[in-house]
Fold:
Amino acid sequence: MRLSADLRAAALVNETVAFELNTAAAYFDRQGQRDVAQALRRQAATLLAEASRLQAEGEGPLHDNSTSTSPMPLGVKDEPAVLEATSSS
Structure:
């Protein structure tokens, strides 16, 4: 389930960056630098395609290769309260 959320988050980041690239492309268009604007739009299109792929992959079945069926808690040695709470089972 965590992998799915991570993939959706990565897709959102890609969409956000693509939006910013298109905004920058509009600026360069206004400045008369069409080549730069076109390059930025191509990068934005690539990111949007990747965002689509990540979104689809995040909605698909999860591939869990681990053999454990229960979650493994992580302890933090630098935090005494967390270490105490996780080690007293």
Q: What stands out?
A: The chain is about 70% helix and 0% strand. The CA atoms of residues 28 and 53 lie 29 Å apart. The first helix runs from residue 2 to 30. The radius of gyration is 21 Å.
